[in-house]
Amino acid sequence: MRSPRCASCAGERLRAEMPAVTIQLSAPAAWHENTHLATAGWPPGVQLDVGADGGPWPPTDEMADGILIRALAAGRAPTTTAPWASRPGSAHATIIGSDPMTTGSFTAWAQRSLLGTANPAIGEVLGWTLPHAVTELELPADARASHHARTAMRSIGAGLSCLDDVLLATSELTANALQHGGGTPRLTAVRAADRITVALTDHRPDVLPVVVPLRGAVAASGRGMAIVDAISSHWGVTVYHDHKVVWCELACHS
Asked: Which residue in 23, 164, 166, 196 has the fewest CB atoms around it within 10 Å?
């Protein structure tokens, strides 16, 4: 008679044989505890490699096959605006914020980033179902985009304390995607209990957003990202080989 434990052992062996995918994060020491805690609920095949902040960005060496995401967490955006080349199936990313992300926020970022790679390896190891309400909308590639995006976010963010900031961030990210993205932008909104994330996908991974310090009404092009930086708890850029995602997260309560 077959022992019931055998089925469990077979499942454990199967998980152990799964190929692992890795997110490599360079971050200040204050980030390390929260990011490690976040991995407690991750699938066994998804690993996090956290290292000290510093070194050249983006990395100049080729990624190992198992490393799908290389990310830098920092209090401010990198000063470089050079393109971040990324091979198909992987990505380079930044997370900008003065404080570490919560475990829930970091996990949600990791999920979105890995899914965006469309790497065949993640199908075998991910096993994640997003515990959030996710909305995606293709926007027109013209001046109507901002209106469509704001209308969608007004509905998605209804009842949130930060709705005005959500709409402002949506306008700025949409304008940035239209001006620097090329092609048809896509809006993605992720609403959780205490936060909402707005993301714009465009087709110019070689053109990165620039934060120009606000100087009142006469600020030049680039002030939109300075506004996003000022009102968001975190924001960032994820660059894939054929597209990029510029996103921001806003802390809210109902």
From this structure: 164
